[in-house]
Amino acid sequence: MKEEKPHILLVEDETHLARGICFNLEQEGYRVSHLESGEEALQRLGYDRFSLIILDIMLPGMDGFSVCKEIRKIDPRVPILILSARSHEGDRITGLAAGADDYLMKPFNLSEFLLRVKGMLRRSSWYRPEPVEEGYRFGDNEVFLLSYHAKTAQGEIDLTELEVKMLAFFFANEGRAVARSTLLESIWGYAADTETRTLDNFIVRLRRYFERDPSHPVHFQTVRGIGYRFSRGQRDEREA
């Protein structure tokens, strides 16, 4: 039986850019559907499933941030890559907070773009069973990795593919200081010397989910000069 091509949804209103993206993705062997508005994308998601969504921020009508939030209500697991011509750090944080898995600035390097797409598709192809499972408890939280779900002091939440992968990595390395380069390579597949704030923004998201006071984290701690450490117990006051 022939393996089905990954199906990618591109939501981009710049016609020339969209044509170029579609052409290059199809050259890589992917099946691509292109829509020009967030409203069309949400309607399409009502009856179709995708392996990856590539979402522009500056769209006519509903902006990409709002579309991203709505997509997460429909499908909490599908990988979302945001594209934006806006370089403000706040936009990157807003995108990740809305539920995106990665954020790429325009104009972008084609090779880097295709590598990110390949990595996100590889992660989304994991087999995801839904058995009855015992939760991983820490603080006021209980995380169910196999079912992509968590109970927190703020309520119950669904987790994305990358959130689950990062949590699983932290749980397996509880108490150890993990280098930024190790996290970037293990979670995103980036080269060790990649300069990106994606990791830091994800940590901000995890703290918002699971910490009583995100500004004084107990579980997801910064280790100065190294990276981060996960702890079930009390915060080391020497760390930020």
Radius of gyration: 18 Å
User: Which CATH architecture of the largest domain would you pick?
Assistant: 3-Layer(aba) Sandwich
| Total E-strand runs | 12
The strand order across the widest sheet is: 2-1-3-4-5
Distance between the termini: 53 Å
Number of domains: 2
Largest sheet: 5 strands, parallel
Count of separate DSSP helical elements:
8
Structural class: alpha/beta
Low-confidence runs? 126-132, 235-240
CATH superfamily of the largest domain: Response regulator
Strand content: 15-25%
CATH topology of the largest domain: Rossmann fold
CATH class call of the largest domain: Alpha Beta
User: Judging from the principal axes of the Cα atoms, what is the shape?
Assistant: globular
Helix content: 25-40%
Average pLDDT taken over every residue: 84
Series of H and E elements: EHEHEHEHEHEEEEHEHHEE
Output the keywords.
single chain; 240 residues; alpha/beta; Rossmann fold; four-stranded antiparallel sheet; 8 helices; globular; disordered C terminus
General description of the model:
- The protein has 8 helices and 12 strands.
- It is α/β, with parallel strands linked by helices and 240 residues long.
- It has 2 domains: 7-124, Rossmann fold (3-Layer(aba) Sandwich); 136-230, Winged helix-like DNA-binding domain superfamily/Winged helix DNA-binding domain (Arc Repressor Mutant, subunit A, Orthogonal Bundle), CATH 1.10.10.10.
- It has a 5-stranded parallel β-sheet, with helices on both faces.
- Helix 2 (38-45) runs parallel beside helix 3 and helix 4 crosses helix 8.
- The longest helix is centred in the middle third of the chain and has 15 residues, at 110-124.
- It is globular, with a radius of gyration of 18 Å.
- The model is unreliable at 126-132 and 235-240 (pLDDT under 50).
